[in-house]
């Protein structure tokens, strides 16, 4: 049987029209683009500390300057307007607003975001604000970080500061970006900040990130405009078995639990999955989940943000794969507590510069699953894109046909999912700009806009012009 997803990937490409009102945008993250790491009261985040630790980030790169968006924000908003974007998803830097993670806000930090939001609105671009994209104030990490309950409580206080400053103008809010990465890469495998390698700490962090989300939603509902929308963004893993055997199906179940259901369960259903608790029982009894926590976490949302780049292929560990190299960075420590008997495999097909398989069918299947599991919850693609080895030619042009092909295939998958019943309301291309790509430093370019790092010069790539036309017309052209 040929599935609709396979038809989407293989059939001759015809033009596809997206629904009226579909939201088109692009996305960034504060530490990856802002720079100005010590200006106007900002203090170090865990990513400042991590990046400055020898051996953590490729080439010793840091986000101290990044793409200098803190000083070039007006130029960047003008680029968004030139491309015709309907929305811009950005994150607020917690240590820029509340440097120690406690106490009153620094007004200069808030003023930066006030100016940014005003400029976006002036250009007719919807601001979509993410409260947390991984830059925890270092002082809170020194006090224990996300494994500690107090960090969730501090996050709610920070959310109140952001809501009071921007809640009259920002209509769309996201609490957390990819809490799986924060918990399991930051505290499990150590390939992300703060670089800890403790499986129990990773599980504790996951719970307190869940709690932080729920507390923040309540704060936002209480303080922002009545017509505001609240969401969370999850990097839902589309997990596939290597074979059709029962052992590989169980490997899928284990990874799906740790990657996805440990967040969707409490956030969207008010409970932790029994199998996840059982799989991790040898590590912890989950006594850090206190009475009332699940009620606090399970808050009504206006949509679910979905980040997708590539599928995940797993099997029972038999020596043919690897326990820890799953596309997120190599480490001697696994980001998958309680899943020691699971191996990861490279999916077939073309790859991006990250080594990630290009597979739009994974996005289609993922959207269809979410539409089935949570039929009354609208979906927004909050990140999708690819890194390639881009360069400016002698004429100053950046041609990136591989990225255009990637975007065309994945947008076709989104369109097919909508046709087949998924309530997908928008799409945000990752990323607006080439930027600091976490542990890869500046070696990977995801941007629609090329950045010459020594000069800061911005050059829209061919893919930016292509995407701009899709945004303008709402039509995905045929190949």
UniProtKB/TrEMBL annotation:
The keyword Hydrolase applies. It comes from the Bacteria. Keywords: Carbohydrate metabolism, Cellulose degradation, Glycosidase, Hydrolase, Polysaccharide degradation. Residues 317-344 are annotated as: Disordered. It comes from Streptomyces fimbriatus. GO terms for molecular function: beta-glucosidase activity. It catalyses: Hydrolysis of terminal, non-reducing beta-D-glucosyl residues with release of beta-D-glucose. The active site is at 383 (nucleophile). The keyword tRNA-binding does not apply. It holds the Pfam family Glyco_hydro_1. InterPro entries: GH (IPR017853), GH_1_N_CS (IPR033132), Glyco_hydro_1 (IPR001360), Glyco_hydro_1_AS (IPR018120), Glyco_hydro_1_beta-glucosidase (IPR017736). SUPFAM superfamilies: (Trans)glycosidases. This is Beta-glucosidase. Its EC number is 3.2.1.21. Gene3D superfamilies: Glycosidases (3.20.20.80). Belongs to the glycosyl hydrolase 1 family.
């Amino acid at each position: 049987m040929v599935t609709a997803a396979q038809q989407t990937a293989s059939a001759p490409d015809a033009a596809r029209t997206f629904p009226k009102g579909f939201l088109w945008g692009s996305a960034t993250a504060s530490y990856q683009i802002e720079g100005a790491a010590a200006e106007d009261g900002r203090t170090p985040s865990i990513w400042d500390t991590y990046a400055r630790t020898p051996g953590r980030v490729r080439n010793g790169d840091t986000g101290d300057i990044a793409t200098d968006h803190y000083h070039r924000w007006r130029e960047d908003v003008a680029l968004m307007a030139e491309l015709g974007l309907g929305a811009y998803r950005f994150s607020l830097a917690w240590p820029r607003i509340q440097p120690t993670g406690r106490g009153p806000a620094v007004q200069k930090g808030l003023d930066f975001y006030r100016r940014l939001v005003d400029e976006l609105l002036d250009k007719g671009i919807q601001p979509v604000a993410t409260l947390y994209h991984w830059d925890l104030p270092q002082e809170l990490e020194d006090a224990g970080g996300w494994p500690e309950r107090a960090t969730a409580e501090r996050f709610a206080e920070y959310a109140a500061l952001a809501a009071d400053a921007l809640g009259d103008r920002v209509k769309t809010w996201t609490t957390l970006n990819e809490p799986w990465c924060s918990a399991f890469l930051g505290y499990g495998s150590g390939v992300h900040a703060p670089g800890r390698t403790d499986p129990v700490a990773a599980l504790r962090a996951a719970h307190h990130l869940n709690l932080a989300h729920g507390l923040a939603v309540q704060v936002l509902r209480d303080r922002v405009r009545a017509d505001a929308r609240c969401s969370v963004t999850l990097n839902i893993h589309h997990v596939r078995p290597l074979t059709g055997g029962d052992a590989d199906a169980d490997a899928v179940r284990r990874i799906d639990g740790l990657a996805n259901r440990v967040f969707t369960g409490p956030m969207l259903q008010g409970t932790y999955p029994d199998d996840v608790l059982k799989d991790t029982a040898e590590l912890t009894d989950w006594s850090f989940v206190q009475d009332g926590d699940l009620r606090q976490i399970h808050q009504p949302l206006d949509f679910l943000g979905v980040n997708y780049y590539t599928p995940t292929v797993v099997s029972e560990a038999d020596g043919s794969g690897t326990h820890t190299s799953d596309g997120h960075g190599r480490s001697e420590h696994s980001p998958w507590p309680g899943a020691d008997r699971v191996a990861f495999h490279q999916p077939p097909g073309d790859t991006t510069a990250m080594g990630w398989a290009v597979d739009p069918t994974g996005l289609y299947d993922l959207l269809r699953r979410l539409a089935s599991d949570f039929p009354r919850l609208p979906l927004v693609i909050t990140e999708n894109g690819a890194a390639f080895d881009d360069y400016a030619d002698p004429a100053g042009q950046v041609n990136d046909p591989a990225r255009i092909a990637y975007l065309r295939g994945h947008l076709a998958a989104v369109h097919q999912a909508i046709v087949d019943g998924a309530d997908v309301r928008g799409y945000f291309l990752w990323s607006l700009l080439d930027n600091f790509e976490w542990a890869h430093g500046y070696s990977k370019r995801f941007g629609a806009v090329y950045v010459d790092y020594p000069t800061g010069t911005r050059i829209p790539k061919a893919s930016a012009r292509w995407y701009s036309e899709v945004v303008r017309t709402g039509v995905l052209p045929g190949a």
